[in-house]
Amino acid sequence: MPYNLSTFTEIAATAAFQDQSFVTKTVTTVAAERKKWQQFLTDQGIAFYPSQANFIFFKVADADGLAATLLKNGYLLRSGLGDNWLRVTIGQPADNQAVQEIIAAFVK
């Protein structure tokens, strides 16, 4: 089932896809950052589902607590998708690094 999209969203998406240098840069950045995320989660001993998308599902002992800690720091992760599973969207490198530092401190 497709997502509901506004006319504005459709216009913006069409413009973005027409800018192939933007698309290539975005895909390259997401792939590189996804690889860093997967290495980070592996190094931390955190279970996750390998991904080819712009997000990763991972499991921690206290997902609600981690989600609350991240929210206090300005980062919103999707929760409620399974017991103690969170979904992180792969963002910009600086934000990814900041979120990873918060997660590492939380799971110690």
Explain how this protein is built.
With 108 residues, this protein is mainly alpha-helical. It has one domain (32-107): Aspartate Aminotransferase, domain 1. Helices cover 57% and strands 11% of the residues. It has 4 helices and 3 strands; from the N terminus they run ααββαβα. It has helices at residues 7-18, 20-44, 63-72, 93-107, and strands at 47-48, 55-59, 85-89. Strands 1-2-3 form a 3-stranded antiparallel β-sheet, covered by helices on one side. Strand 1 (47-48) and strand 2 (55-59) form a beta hairpin. Helix 2 (20-44) packs parallel to helix 4 (93-107). The longest helix is centred in the N-terminal third of the chain and has 25 residues, at 20-44. It is globular and about 45 Å long.
Descriptive terms for the model:
108 residues; mainly alpha; Aspartate Aminotransferase, domain 1; 4 helices; 11% strand
- Rg calc: 15 Å
Structural class: mainly alpha
Number of strands: 3
pLDDT averaged residue by residue: 93
Helix content: 55-70%
How many individual helices?
Answer: 4
Share of residues in strands: 5-15%
List low-pLDDT spans: none
Full CATH superfamily name? Aspartate Aminotransferase, domain 1
Give me the side-by-side strand order of the main sheet. Answer: 1-2-3
Main beta sheet strand tally, sense and closure? 3 strands, antiparallel
**N-C termini distance:** 40 Å
How do the SSEs run, as a string of H and E? Answer: HHEEHEH
Shape: globular
CATH level-1 class? Alpha Beta
Work out the count of structural domains: 1
CATH architectural arrangement: Alpha-Beta Complex
